[in-house]
Structure formats: C-alpha cells, structure tokens
Amino acid sequence: SKEDIESDGKKSLEAISNEEQTALLKKINLTEPTSKAEEHEKDSKMKAFKKPLSVFKGPLLHISPAEELYFGNTESGEKKTLIVLTNVTKNIVAFKVRTTAPEKYRVKPSNSSCDPGASVDIVVSPHGGLTVSAQDRFLIMAAEMEQSSGTGPAELTQFWKEVPRNKVMEHRLRCHIVETSKPTTLTLKDNAFNISDKTSADIYLQLNRLLESNRKLEDQVQRCIWFQQLMLSLTVILLAFVASFFYLLYS
C-alpha cells in the first residue's frame, strides 16, 4: 500500500542519515587526536624558545630582552635565542636587525615589518661550529612607515634608502653566554681526581726530598771515609817516622 511504501522510505532515509552521522563522528574522532597532536607539537616548538622577561620600551617598539641576548654554551645544546618586537604605534613599523659578526649568526627575520599592536618573534641562532662571543653585538633599527607604503622586500629596501636618520630608532643588545653547571656525579669525580692528583704531587715532592737527603748523607759518608783514610795515612807516616827516629837514635 501507499502508507507502507512511505514508512519504508522514511526508515531507509533514517538508516542512511544514521550511517552518515556515525561516519561523520568517526571522522571527527580521527581528526581530533591529529589536530591535538599538531597543536601539542606547535606548543612544544614555541616552548623551546623561552620568552624574554626584560623589556626595553622604545617610542616605536618594545624590545625584549632589554639589554642582553642569552645563549646556551656548547655543552647545553640550547644555542638559539629569541628577540620579541612589539609595535606600540598606530602605523606599520619597519625593522632591521644587524650584528657585528654577520658570519656567525642566522637572524630570521632580519628585515621585515610589524603591524600596529602586533608582535614579531626574531630567532637568532649561531651557525654550526661557530662559538658565541661576549664581544658580539646586535643592533635593532626601526622606523615608522606611512599607511600607503608597501611592505614587500623591494618597498622595504627603498624605504630604508629614503628614511631620514633622525626618524630611525636604534637599540643595541649584548651577547651573554649561559654557563651550565656540571652534574653532581661529574663534580664528585673531578674532586676525586683533584684529590688524587694532589696526593700524587705530595708523594712525589716527599720522594724528591728523601732522595735529596739521601744524596747529602752519601756525600757526608764519603767525606768521613776520605777523612778516615787521610788520618790513617798520616798515622802510618807518623809511626814510620817515629820508628826510624828511634832506630837511628839507638844504632
């Protein structure tokens, strides 16, 4: 009948819709862990760079850290550091980052722009095999751009050629190498080695003193033997002289 056909059609539609809903839920459940894993990976990457705490508040940019870039040493492995620029103006601010040792460092981005109220993270990392020096310096240059100006590489290059010197904000940063403390086990081993080295040195010194004293005693013994031999020879000569004297006297 017509009613049976309509009821069968409704049931089939409901079954299809239920199957689609189940498939959609499965897709959502499958994509959620992936998206969570991606977010976790991004968070871990961002946490790899510790946000600097000190801030230099300039007229165009707030720069963090304020004075020093902290680099880990070779043993720690954490050699990258972060510069955070925050635009505090109502216009776009162009910036450049220069260093006294460009062959040592990779700076990304080194020549770009920052939108009003936005922040830019600049990653500074030494090239492989090169060591960070406390004498190295970084210079951050910033200048406010007009709203109609473009921010492409060509526009930025032309902007820096034309911008007046008195419109440029400059701020310098020093480099600081963070020394990592040795583990306690290594410290104890080093102390043990130092103690053993000191003990060996003391024993060697005492041995040298004993050898020197022994040599002096041998010299004294040799002198005593020589003196005894001399006295014995003189005694023999004297006895021979006395004997010859009495022999001549009574003959």
UniProtKB/TrEMBL annotation:
Transmembrane segments: 226-250
Extent of Basic and acidic residues compositional bias: 35-44
Span of domain MSP: 60-178
Domain of life: Eukaryota
Swiss-Prot/TrEMBL keywords: Membrane, Transmembrane, Transmembrane helix
One protein family per Pfam: Motile_Sperm
Residues covered by region (Disordered): 25-44
PROSITE patterns per UniProt: MSP
Protein name per its UniProtKB record: Motile sperm domain-containing protein 2-like protein
Origin species: Equus caballus (Horse)
